[in-house]
Amino acid sequence: MANPLLEDIRSRIEKSARIADRKPSDITLIAVSKTRSSDEILPLLASGHRVFGENRVQEAMEKWPALKAEYPDIQLHMIGQLQSNKAAEAVALFDYFHSVDRLSLIKALAKEMDRQERHIPCFVQVNIGEESQKGGCDIKAVAELLGQARTAGIPVVGLMAVPPDNANPVPYFALLAKLARDQGLDGLSMGMSGDFDKAIKLGATHVRVGTALFGERATQPG
Ligand SMILES: *Cc1c(COP(=O)(O)O)cnc(C)c1O
Is 215 close to ligand 1, i.e. is its CB under 6 Å away? Predict the structure, then answer.
């Protein structure tokens, strides 16, 4: 079943990839389904989309086990701030983590990944705009945190960031891409509804798109 919004975003991804001389297949579209009901998610599944993102463990646990039972090839990404005391549930449910940003979380995830024998690919989140209210490690701490993740046995595939609101995201995307290159990481989780085209031109491998796919959210989760 065709979904016009999904088709539109796919074609924009292809266009940006082409401009940047990249393969569209190297870019993963994460449909950010936070605050959306299963009834809103099912049409996307019916149209063939399988990659989704959530920002709260509790909310994800209420929706996704049933959907995963129906569509076993769903790939579920945790994109929000993660508390160490939710590590067990999160490792059991999610297939990617985008917000690994501190040693205590690395330790909690590593312990659960070993216990559950699920070594889940992770992005290290960087506080790219140096904003006190945002998650992510300091830019200066990236190398150290990557070392700690490797020592703990966590598979790190890339870096993730959310640039400051109401700022031109381009310099932030470029900085994140440079940090990843310096660390020899291929994955770049950056770009949302308003700026994923720009993120792709600067190397994004994973774009996280909510509103452009589902419409405006009724309540903005904090
Ligand atoms: C909500 C959210 C998104 C999606 O934002 P939209 O503007 O709705 O596309 C992307 N990344 C993170 C971390 C989010 O919390």
Answer: no
96: exposed, middle or buried (C-beta count within 10 Å: 0-12, 13-18, 19+)?
Answer: buried
* Residue 63: CA count within 13 A, CB half-sphere: 22
Nearest CA to ligand 1 atom 13: 79
The 3-state DSSP class for residue 26 equals helix
Instruction: Place 222 in a pLDDT band, splitting at 50, 70 and 90.
Output: very low
CA of 30 to the centre of ligand 1 (A): 10
User: What is the mean predicted confidence (pLDDT) over 109-120?
Assistant: 98
CB contact at 8 A, 38 and 67? yes
* CB 125 near ligand 1, within 6 Å: no
